[in-house]
Amino acid sequence: MPATRWGDPAYATGLPDGVRDLVSLVFPIADRPAREDVTVPAPRLGDEQIAGLRGIVGDDHVVLDDATRRRRTRGKSTPDLLRQRSGDLSDAPDVVVRPASHDEVVAVLGYAQEQRIAVVPFGGGTAVTGGLVADLASGDLTGMLSLDLGRMRGLLGIDTVSSTATLEPGLRGPEAEALLAAHGLMLGHFPQSFEYATIGGFAATRSSGQSSAGYGRFDKMVVALRVATPAGEVRLGASPSNASGPDLREIFLGSEGAFGVITEVTVRVRPLPEVKEYEGWRWSSFAAGADAMRALAQSDLLPTVLRLSDENETMINLADPSGIGGEGNAGCLMITGYEGTPAAVAAKKAAVTAALTELGGTPAGSEPGEAWAHGRFNAPYLRDSLLDNGVLVETLETVTFWSNRENLYTRVKTALEETLGEGTLVLCHVSHVYATGCSLYFTVAAPGGEDPLAKWLPAKAAACEAIVAAGASITHHHAVGTDHKPYLTAEIGEVGVDVLRAVKRAVDPAGILNPGVLIP
Amino acid sequence: MPATRWGDPAYATGLPDGVRDLVSLVFPIADRPAREDVTVPAPRLGDEQIAGLRGIVGDDHVVLDDATRRRRTRGKSTPDLLRQRSGDLSDAPDVVVRPASHDEVVAVLGYAQEQRIAVVPFGGGTAVTGGLVADLASGDLTGMLSLDLGRMRGLLGIDTVSSTATLEPGLRGPEAEALLAAHGLMLGHFPQSFEYATIGGFAATRSSGQSSAGYGRFDKMVVALRVATPAGEVRLGASPSNASGPDLREIFLGSEGAFGVITEVTVRVRPLPEVKEYEGWRWSSFAAGADAMRALAQSDLLPTVLRLSDENETMINLADPSGIGGEGNAGCLMITGYEGTPAAVAAKKAAVTAALTELGGTPAGSEPGEAWAHGRFNAPYLRDSLLDNGVLVETLETVTFWSNRENLYTRVKTALEETLGEGTLVLCHVSHVYATGCSLYFTVAAPGGEDPLAKWLPAKAAACEAIVAAGASITHHHAVGTDHKPYLTAEIGEVGVDVLRAVKRAVDPAGILNPGVLIP
After folding, report:
1. How many Cβ atoms are within 10 Å of B8's Cβ, its own excluded?
2. How far does chain B reach from its first CA to its final CA, in angstroms?
3. Active site residue A434
4. Do the chains contact at A159 and B401, CB–CB below 8 Å?
5. Cross-chain CB nearest to A162 (options B402, B492, B493)
6. Are B486 and B480 within 8 A, CB to CB?
7. Are B436 and A268 a contacting pair at CB < 8 A?
8. Residues in chain B within 8 Å Cβ distance of A233
9. A184 assigned to a ligand binding site
10. What is the ipTM of this complex?
11. B300-353 pLDDT per residue, tens
12. Which residues pair with A169 in a beta bridge?
């Protein structure tokens, strides 16, 4: 199983001329050195510990070589890439352990607890908020093992009557979809990390995909979970919804590996769509387009895909140079997508078209929609080329209620522009909507300067503080990790944090699971 | 504020002739003595403690008289009514305390913690699973106060842009709807307890209403909560959905007063519907009707109301004598209801009608639908008259995935029939559907015999054991209380129970909140 190729020079997408030209309007593109070939620190685990782990999963699945450890170091945020480029591999795991089953996960957790080894569950490695960085100091731990779930990639069962499927956590997005497609079924979860990220990771981080308007967030697709914790196994989800006390599924969803290792996920599935149609709409302003999205969401009339770029993103369209930022731009571009049976697509499209026309939108035809669909997973590849060219580029996201959308947008944009200074481009889109609110997804580009990491970190902090000051959530779908941890208390309060700590003590009394992640 | 009138002789509905005739076909109706006028036990709290509570909420809002204490004793399950009728008021609270604000709730909790007094939050008093019975022995407690939230009945704010409203917990269903209707808005939560049950109770028990197909369960309507716990205040819900770790709203929803007192609930609201249309459909069998419901749910094509009675309920229609069990019955009756704008209702009705026709349903016109809508809140009144006539009648409910529906139905029905013996009538309906499953709501009637309570309890236990054996949830919307507590471990596991205990210790270290409820 290859590690994710985001950040891997072999898979970097060359900077398209169009983007190069547009970016060069704003700041000069410089040549940057390629990342150094550096070695990882010496493993902290002893031979006996390695032998113990080999006894559980087999010799072949306890991996110690530098290349594997390097690929399991941190995730794929821009700071992660910059640290890797600068040769800082201080967060490398001591060993990569690849269990094949729930029972092997249980055994590894038991051994790690006994030996006081930190366990960092690893799926696709696409974490962008520092969720793969263990803090050994916090718990008197002797080392860190990366628990690679890549051997647990089965489709364990399909219930066609209930429209559910049970999946193993190591399945990547395309693998899960291919297994389901063989039965005429689909999960319908397409985050930008789709190609690499895994079912377990989607659940552990409350991922949300590009078809969330039609198919919902990943956490809403989950009906049952099996979790291995150091305190024992947890099986949750005897029914779709119930009144059997607090919904404990919602405690393990979003737990980011700190409460247990998710070993099975049962999700709602759907028939494969017979028809897929994507199209564009043009709006006079970001606010006008957002108001239209709100009207659709509040009348429960949502297409499968619904996205809106702000004026800057519509103009530059850094995230997808091939498509929607084409000629004749003015105002803001919205993408609407419809998937399903021909009859359902026709009915929904007619109703949405009538509503958007009434609200003042201008149809922009199918070309922008198809272009978006074609390039939807490309942005992270492009980022590597931008970094190569001295452009600092990163994304961040948040979510709030509709009445706070404009305030949040202005605060975050201003914070980024003011902190990063001249030449900064802030782009934004809305790609996830609810009846009561929406996400805001920002892409930031700025000249990297001598030390891009030192330049970015204060900007990220300023953006986070702006989100907190606006009363919004610190993350819509990137999760907390270590990067957002300092801001979680403001969102859930001291008592909320105490509840998380109490749950942690109950399921992981020795504190071996992803120490330092999530919980302040 | 009157206590709920279910079980109050003054508000009992006389047994309609039609029901009397139908019931007498099955078992003879006997005359039963009216409940005795009994006195409540002497209060266990001392004068100093009463004075302390008066100092917080004022003299007028610390109520000690027998009538008030009697009305706050237990809830409204049939066992609750039977115990009350038999003169057993051993679970009466020592005092009823009526705070006017979040801050007064906080102060009462602080005082109760200091004095080791159990606190049982009280909303509408419509609990049917023993959720209002405190177990003082478990925590070395000196007495029990009923925390009546009836003075906290404000509409604290409306956000018309985000379509949310913030409500106080003591608002009864009709009061909340009336306050919202003044703004052209609606919550749309209509459980059978609608007339008495409160916003706080809906949240604390994960209530689900008769329009759940269109408007969702109550827990899905909630976007934010304010909770007073002995450990401090919790405010949750910075956004509709997010990835800021576990969703702690889902820990306080369904917490049944054991984790804190919900003092504010922010919910999604909707425009008042311009049109409401209800109609009937007839199906050859319960299975055929249920398959049709499943098809609608799995194609995301749900009307606002969707209910299906099994053959027995269609025939007898004990739950609503005035309507749907009319002449010419054969097979099973389904009710479909549509609410919204004229255009939306017409479009949805056309699509659902086409689907149900294709699936083999026979339209039964608007009469059964309107009859259902007219009598929808009447069943609990009728129950009192049945009890007066020596008929033991009770309801229970569960929820499972679609593929397990028939197994669950057969197991529970058989368990009830076998335990209660000859002359037992078991009726069932499906009134809440999901893409992946549905609820089953049973109404049971049997001759009461000499000791109806002694007759019922083994039947309830057998039904619960059947639910557990079928792998379903012990409750879809009645909550856990004390009645379902013995079965919760089977559903969420030992580790799940440990998580609940850990949360309890974090938010209520002295164990004063609803002791003995919910947590095994």
Report:
1. 13
2. 33
3. no
4. yes
5. B402
6. no
7. yes
8. 493, 495
9. no
10. 0.93
11. 999 999 999 999 999 876 344 444 444 445 699 999 999 999 999 999 999 999
12. none
